[in-house]
C-alpha cells in the first residue's frame, strides 16, 4: 500500500507508531501493555492476544466479559487460520418454548437470550494450537488487575455510567442483583481514575487458567452457571456447556483493487463487508473522497447489508451459499442498481451454483486479529453470583420468524456481529484490522479498507477519518467533522442524513500493518482509550 494521500481532506489526530520486535493495539492501555509484556516474556503474537483479551474482560467490562463470544484470524508462517468461538443456543431454547412464555420477539436482557459463551474456549484453543505459553502465564496479568484493581480509563468510565443508567431502567428483579453488586457496588459506576477490582473475577480467571478453560465448561464454574440459570428460569445448562466446541474455519476473501480482504464466514457478518467491497469495486472512485465516491460507498453498503440481514445465519441453515453471495456476477448485478439517487434497498436473489478488538504481531511474522464481546454493552445484565462472569445476550439476534434462516432453534448459532479482519497481498500478510461496534462493524471495515486502498491513507489516518453509518432505508448518521457542503450534496441525492456527535456510535478500531522491510506500523482509535504498545 502506498500511504501518500496528500489530497485527502482530513488530517490524522494521532501519530503512527512503529516497531520491529512486537506490537499490540487495542482499546485500553493496560490491556495492550499486558500483551506486550507477554511478548517480552517469550510469548508469541497469539500468547499476547490471549493476555490482552483476558485483560480486556477486566479493564473494559462495558464491552466484553468472560461470559461472551470471540472470533480470531491468525497468520502464522503457513498462512491464515480462522477461529469461530461463538456459542449456540441451548438445547432447550426453541421457538415453541419461547412462544409458550408468551414471547413474540427475542428479549435483549435477562436469561432468555443467553447462549453458550465461547471466549474461554477461544483462549484455550488458541493457546493449544499456536501459543508458546500456558494460560497460567497469559491470564496472570488479567488476574492481577482484577485482584489488585486498576484506575478506570475515561471512555470506559463514560460507557460504564451509561450502562448503570440503562441497568436501573431495564435490569429488574433478583436475577440482576449480582450484576449491580459487581459493577455498581457503591450504587453508581466508577469514575475515571477511580480504582475498580473484582476478586470474584480474579478467582474465575484462575480456575480457567489452571484447567485450560475446562472448569468453565465441565467443572465447578459450569455447575455454578447451571444452578444460577435454573434458579432464574434460563435455558442454559451444564450439558450445553459440556458439549461446546470451537470451530476452526477457513477465512473468506475477495480481492479489492489488488488487496485481499479476509473475513470469517457466517454465522458472523464479515461477509457483508466483502459483499459491499465487491460492489464498490465495480466503480472507479474519485481520487479524493467526494460526494460521488461517498454516495457509491453508502449505496454499496445498503445493498450488502440488505442481503446480509436476509441470508446470514448458522451456515447449516442458510438457503444460499457464501460463494454465490461473493460471486463477481452477483456483485455486478447488484452494482447495476446504483444510480445517481439514493435507493431503498432490498435483498437480492443470488444465482445458485460481524465489543472489543485487538491486533497483535511479533517479530517472527505471526499476527492476530481478535475480537470478543458481550453484546450491547454489558450483555444480558446477568452476573453469575460469586464468579464475576457477566453473561452475554447473543440470542437477541435470533429471529422468531419460522421462515427466516436465522430463526431460533436448539444448538443453532445466531447471526453474529463481531468480525475480525485481515489484509494480504500476493499471498503475503499486510496485517490485522478491525472496527468494533455492533452493526457498525462491516460498515467500519468498508470505510477503513477503502481509505487504505483507494485513498492511500496511513493506518492512523484511516481510523481518524470521519465515518458514516447506515441506519435503514435511506437514513444515515454522520460524524460532525464531515463537511456540511458534502452532507448537503448527499441530501440532494436523496440520502436522509443527521449528524451524530457521540463518537461511540461509529465504532472503535485498531490496525497493525507490516511493510516489506518487516517494520510494524500500528494505529488505534481517537474514539476510545486505545493504545499501541510497541517493542
From TrEMBL:
Pfam families recorded: G_glu_transpept
InterPro entries: GGT-like_enzyme (IPR052896), GGT_lsub (IPR043138), GGT_ssub_C (IPR043137), Ntn_hydrolases_N (IPR029055)
Name by which UniProt lists this protein: Gamma-glutamyltransferase 2. Threonine peptidase. MEROPS family T03
